[in-house]
Amino acid sequence: SLSDFSITGPFDTAIYGSNVGDVEIKNVTIDGGGAGHDGIVIDQSDTSGTANIDIDNVSITGLTHDGIDLNVNGTSGGTSTTNLNVSNSTVHVGHDGVAVTSSASGASNLTVYAGIHDSTIVAGGTGTAMSGTTSPGATLNQSIVVDPTAISGGLYGVHITATADGGSFTQNISLSDVTISNVSKGGVVISASADEAGTLDQGIDITNLDIASTDTPFSISAKADHNATLQQSLTADHLSVGVGASNNLGFYASAHNGGALSQTFALSHVTADNAPADGVYMYVSSDSGAPAIQ
User: According to a count of CB atoms within 10 Å of the terminal CB, is the N or C end of the chain lower?
Assistant: First the structure.
């Protein structure tokens, strides 16, 4: 447990943990003074059992790189669960605010959860980033929940990718009562890709999301290739997006070389006005023997 102290820079990483069990970081101020690199970095590699990382009432400022990084990798076939919760915190950094990466291979079975609650993120790169990959024989269950949180600055507000190059991957995304502003490239950009006979199920649930104008306010894409199976679903209620460079909301789907893809949407109370091209744009492509349903 780490609580009630301050760290001032410059430094490479203010707080670092490797293969941790339960960690609580509370009432901590990290100030890199414009020269610190990373704030909090947790690396989990080939662990087993459950790890809980709770970050509460933490201020992270003055960094050139990331505020909070969680990296979970499994290669040896073990089973692990890692839970990250960030609450009541402020992150103002030069690159990514909160970044979560997961990689499962070699028959590993990983469960990774990241929750960001009641926080403010100002970033020079991506406010909230999550990525996951699987390879043949591995299983990854990855979830991210972002609720009452304001994200601003940088290139992307929320950028999430899922890649199943073999193996089995389930990814659940929940955004609720989130505002995204002053980002240059994308508000919410989510992509899913399944290849090499992998299976990928990506579910997206959105409630009360407000995205200001940017090049790509809202984009969802999915690709299934080489006998892979991909299911991607979106449910959105009270979604408001600003004006994009071309389309305000874009949905893209493709299946090739025996891949099978299902991409479904249920949208209600959506505002996407004044688009230069289309308010809502949908595109699907497939070749023979590769069904794509949108």
Answer: N
